[in-house]
Amino acid sequence: MAPRTYWKGYLKLSLVTCPVTLMPAITEGDKVRFHTLNAQTGNRVVSQYVDSVTEKPVRDDDEVKGYERGENDYVMLEDAEIEAVGLESTRTIDIDMFVPDHSIGWVWYDRPHFLLPGDEVGQEAFAVIRDAMAASGTVGISRLVMYRRERAVMLKPRGKGMVLWTLRYGDEVRDEADYFDDISQSKPEARPLTLVRKLIGEKTTHWDPSMVNDPVQERLLDIIAAKKKGKKRAAKPKPQAHEPEGNVIDIMTALKKSLQAEGKRSSR
């Protein structure tokens, strides 16, 4: 069954406009979630905001956003003031510019959404924009109000549709040079490099979504199923973490042993 429509609006490029629908590309709907209960009564525990000084509960109408400018000193902003600085239109994806597809590093990618035509009439305009981006190797950049904040978004062709990625804000992405600059630039020797490439070849396979299954989720579901039947399922003992022994053996010996082990697995 197709999921519910998440967002409806328009895709606009200069004078070309077409209705579009936006759907989240990922979901956490099947994740195991827990409520906090009172162990004595079995009732759910509710949370509420409490004044940090008077320790009295705060009514919803009295809650306000505050920006700290000093110790116990805040600038208060109403919700209406915060919302007023957003885009005037929250229903139009107006493509401002295009950039080469490869120019945006993965670290800027935030959350993916599927973008598709909103009706049959708009399919031609949608397809023209999509295919032109694919042919030119570019992605579109726009801005949109999502998750209650104005965000930069990237439109990337994918199959018959597009993927709209929200992009991280500039102050969220750290400069990799702060971390990588101290790493030695010396080139590895040819022999170990050849063996590592061979080892990679031995371990290379086709991508499969099962590679990223959540084993903790599966075990939790087993425990919940057992409790539903009134059985007490013994939890598996936590595996002991084994620290690597460090660079005790030289890298060539380690690589040769690794390749031998992989060869045995392949033959089995």
From TrEMBL:
Domain Ku: 55-182
Keyword match DNA damage: yes
Keywords linked to the UniProt accession: DNA damage, DNA recombination, DNA repair, DNA-binding
Pfam families in the record: Ku
Disordered: annotated segments: 228-247
Record CDD domains: KU_like (cd00789)
Taxonomy, superkingdom: Bacteria
Record InterPro entries: DNA_bd_Ku70/Ku80, Prok_Ku, SPOC-like_C_dom_sf
Role noted for this protein: With LigD forms a non-homologous end joining (NHEJ) DNA repair enzyme, which repairs dsDNA breaks with reduced fidelity. Binds linear dsDNA with 5'- and 3'- overhangs but not closed circular dsDNA nor ssDNA. Recruits and stimulates the ligase activity of LigD.
Protein family membership: Belongs to the prokaryotic Ku family.
HAMAP family registered for this protein in UniProt: Prokaryotic_Ku
Subunit architecture: Homodimer. Interacts with LigD.
Identification of the protein by name: Non-homologous end joining protein Ku
Annotated organism of origin: Paracoccus aerius
Taxonomic lineage of the native organism: Bacteria, Pseudomonadati, Pseudomonadota, Alphaproteobacteria, Rhodobacterales
